[in-house]
Design goal:
By secondary structure, the chain is α/β, with parallel strands linked by helices. The protein is built from 18 helices and 11 strands. The protein folds into 2 domains: 265 residues, 3-Layer(aba) Sandwich (Rossmann fold), CATH 3.40.50.10540; 91 residues, 2-Layer Sandwich (formyl-coa transferase, domain 3), CATH 3.30.1540.10. The longest helix is centred in the middle third of the chain and has 21 residues. The structure holds oxidized coenzyme A.
Length: 415
């Protein structure tokens, strides 16, 4: 038995944000029926292909554990099938451009008429307001949600981050909203509309940066290393390089081999609680009692110099040696791991966080498994479906169509 067993999802999602949400729900046990346009399907099937004519890794890594049906929802008979799916399913998840579902004839009002228990969950770029009609992709959300303006170095341009906080981050928020709505439906018997806007989700993940915007109105952000050097950081949260910006200063430091290995670096945190251990480890025992070094506030104006000195020590060790030496002393640090190192990490394979999946057309490939581990709802990562792989099965088993009716749908190109 899985946590969401018995929940049927009408998965009308495409690209990344929506599919990450429904993939999570599928991993938790929901029956996820992915609806795609006949012939082409989700655009990502054909994007960034590494093998000709085979579903891309972009698609396969975002659509595990789903069943796939093709349906032209703009044709009359296609609309009828969609209506029957709406009546049968518990949740409709979509991330079309604003208005697309209404244009298709499936407004929220119409969906409620068809199935008052239906939970309709949407990803949109923006919530209600001046930009609500805009299409949005990942990096647009990172820019409009506050991430880009606070990422990068102070004297450089805004930067986008590799973590897909706009797409996958919003998918995660939406999944939580859906599960909460399912829970509430147990009491009310009614469905509801769930919206996760990408701008809102990014801003939620940048919460601490809005904190700092307000702090800077009252005085300098002393926990930012440039403030310690006397630089005027302006009137809003600045880009702060690799500063932790929190109560425990941190920075990325070079390790042995940095000259030729782009990832020979470690994130090193000078946690106050273990300051003495740090001083002993890096060969600066006098810092423990020296004036200007003994307490965290005293160190703030020289934190860059302190990290320079620690780096002289980390440069003599590999990033893994730094980790091995720091861990027993309770010094928080972490090696900068490359995708190659993560792909090869046995511990991640053992926990199912990195999984090898077999696909009938591409063969074996690596993917990221479910990051949520539950003791009573185990996840088995199953390959993504081929385009329309389960069309007949869904029409028959879920909707009760007869063979002749399916043949007629096929003849009219509705499926
Ligand atoms: N049968 C028939 N038509 C279908 C269909 C089906 N099965 N599935 C989709 N369509 C139609 C839609 O109805 C829409 O038609 P209209 O424009 O005539 O109403 C059309 O396909 C295109 O849909 P779209 O506008 O959503 O797709 P797009 O490629 O132009 O835009 C995106 C993509 C992502 C920018 C847009 O969907 C969007 O802004 N979504 C919300 C935000 C979001 O999720 N962004 C993250 C994407 S991942 O980086």
């Amino acid at each position: 038995m899985k946590a969401l067993e018995g929940v049927k999802i009408l998965d009308f999602t495409h690209v990344q944000s929506g599919p990450t949400c429904t993939q999570l729900l599928a991993w938790l046990g929901a029956d996820c029926i992915k609806v795609e346009r006949p012939g082409t399907g989700d655009a990502t099937r054909g994007q960034l292909r590494d093998i000709p004519d085979v579903d891309s890794l972009y698609f396969t890594m975002l659509n595990h554990n789903k069943r796939a049906i093709t349906l032209n929802t703009k044709s009359e008979s296609g609309k009828e099938v969609l209506e029957r799916l709406v009546k049968t399913c518990d949740v409709l998840v979509e991330n079309f451009a604003p208005g697309a579902l209404d244009r298709m004839g499936f407004s929220w009002e119409r969906i409620q008429e068809l199935n008052p228990r239906m939970i309709m969950a949407s990803v949109k770029g923006f919530g209600p307001g001046p930009y609500e009609d805009c299409k949005v992709y990942e990096n647009v959300a990172q820019c409009t949600g506050g991430s880009a303006s606070t990422t990068g170095f102070f004297d450089g341009p805004p930067l986008v981050t590799a973590a897909q906080i706009g797409d996958s981050g919003t998918g995660l928020h939406l999944a939580l909203g859906i599960v909460a709505a399912l829970f509430q439906r147990e009491q009310t018997g009614r469905g509801q509309k769930v919206l996760a806007a990408m701008q809102d989700s990014v801003l939620n993940l940048c919460r601490v940066k809005l904190r700092d915007h307000q702090r800077i109105q009252r005085g300098p952000l002393n926990e930012y290393s440039l403030a310690g050097k006397g630089v005027d950081l302006g009137d809003t949260t600045p880009r702060a390089g690799n500063d932790s910006g929190g109560g425990q200063p941190g920075w990325i430091l070079k390790c042995k081999g940095w000259e030729h290995d782009a990832n020979a670096y470690v994130y090193f945190i000078t946690q106050a609680a273990v300051w003495g251990n740090i001083c002993d480890l890096v060969g600066k025992p006098d810092w423990k009692t020296a004036p200007g070094y003994a307490s965290p506030p005293e160190r703030l104006d020289k934190i860059s110099d302190i990290f320079d000195a620690i780096e002289e020590w980390t440069k003599t060790k590999t990033k893994f040696e730094v980790m091995e030496l720091c861990n027993p002393l309770n010094i928080p640090c972490g090696p900068v791991l490359s995708m190659k190192e993560l792909a090869d990490e046995p511990a991640l394979r053992e926990t199912g966080t990195v999984v090898e999946v077999d696909h009938p057309e591409r063969g074996k490939y690596l993917t990221v498994g479910c990051p949520i581990k539950m003791s009573d709802s185990e996840v088995e990562v199953l390959r993504s479906p081929l385009l329309g792989e389960h069309t007949d099965e869904i029409l028959k088993d879920v909707l009760g169509y007869a063979d002749e009716e399916i043949a007629s749908l096929r003849a009219s190109k509705a499926i």
